[in-house]
């Protein structure tokens, strides 16, 4: 039976963290900068340990207004990227993390192809520099089939390829920007179909903890995978 991991973003201050862990096999725990707090991060790590769920750190740009989803301006690049490295270093001290999953705009920058970088090349170069500067040795969770996946594997770094149950994709395989209508999926049938399309292609499937109806979707996605012959795990 093929295994597919089901991961959720938690520790960001939304109310369904513990309930989501009934269905997830991995949890991306916010580092307390793009949302939440360090105290909430520590509480969430203990919650995951009690539930027996694999823990990943989930660092993001320290912009709470956009929840880490805004691209950095030129004068913000240095401080924001230093913040990412500080978040990784602080989380490592807990000894809990088994992988690193970039959040929000950082994740999207890492998913861009060379052909897409005309307007964001400097931000993307800096974003990738943070990955290369990270000395944790932990696997990175990245968008499945993105160019950086292959580049990192050539350096010997382990990568977990990811797909999204509740996000729309563009024809080139990247995620539709949240600013566009239809970027977040809400139709259960559409989500189930996307999960079954992604499951043979990726190592892990993500559900967001801040999507309305996320708890119902998590139960449905878990059931859809099991009914289709997959074991939810890693």
Fold and architecture overview:
The chain is an alpha/beta fold and 234 residues long. Helix content is 38%, strand content 15%. The chain contains eight helices and seven strands; from the N terminus they run E-H-E-H-E-H-H-H-E-H-E-H-E-H-E. Strands 1, 2, 3, 4, 5, 6 and 7 form a seven-stranded parallel beta sheet that branches. Helix 3 runs parallel beside helix 5 (121-133). The radius of gyration is 16 Å and the shape is globular. The model has no long low-confidence stretch (mean pLDDT 92).
What's a quick, concise take on this entry?
With 234 residues, this protein is α/β, with parallel strands linked by helices. It has helices at residues 17-20, 38-51, 77-93, 104-111, 121-133, 147-154, 188-198, 214-227, and strands at residues 3-10, 26-30, 54-58, 140-143, 159-164, 204-208, 231-232.
